Amino acid sequence: MNRGRLIALEGLDGCGKSTQLEPLAEALRAAGHDVVTTHEPTDGAHGRRIREMARARAALEPAEELRWFVEDRREHVAQVIAPALAAGRVVLTDRYTLSSVAYQGARGLDWREILAESEAEFPLPDLALIFEIAPDVGLARVRARGAPLEHAFEREEFLAKVARIFRALPCAYVARIDAAAPPDAVAAAVRDCVRERLALL
Ligand code: TYD
Questions:
Q1: pLDDT in tens, 88-121
Q2: How many whole angstroms from 44 Cα to the centroid of ligand 1?
Q3: 3 state SS of 36
Q4: 81 partner at 20 to 30 Å CA-CA among 5, 13, 36, 123?
Q5: Listed range (72-76, 151-155, 160-164) with the worst mean pLDDT
């Protein structure tokens, strides 16, 4: 058995996890690992539908929204994540199960139930890095990227709920990263964490 490793990068919008994905992948490759980087929502049919609906600001019921993300993840695991793990590769995914737990939990669903169902169905992450940032700081970064931010106040309130769930997660595979630090310091903290938790670096 030469199962690979699964590392999920999670956090609020604007937390900087996407910026940290490639530097971590490079560090792991330099250490001799075969690395795959990927993301959710995916670029597959379900992921595209999710983005279209978000652009159209279509209001989905929380349970239906969850179903879309789970469908997208099923395809992602079957086509990308499980084969890579079976081949002994290190998979870095920008968002995974804990995004559904925190975001769809913040929409009013029972986050403990989403967590239990996710852990029953999908490969457990070996490590889930949660990039912690205050909602207003994350939103300011999203705005600085030029993304239009309507309903900013409601968004901030919503993200505060998401953050509360991320903070409450009891999973042993979770590690928390201070994402308010400068990018180089965050990158170093990420490498330290991967070294300590998984001995891959
Ligand atoms: P994001 O990582 O911001 O993707 P991109 O930068 O490619 O647009 O994710 C898009 C949004 O989807 C983000 O606000 C979090 C949300 N999301 C959920 O609500 N549930 C989920 O299960 C996932 C994977 C994402």
A1: 999 999 999 999 999 999 999 999 999 999 999 9
A2: 14
A3: strand
A4: 13
A5: 151-155
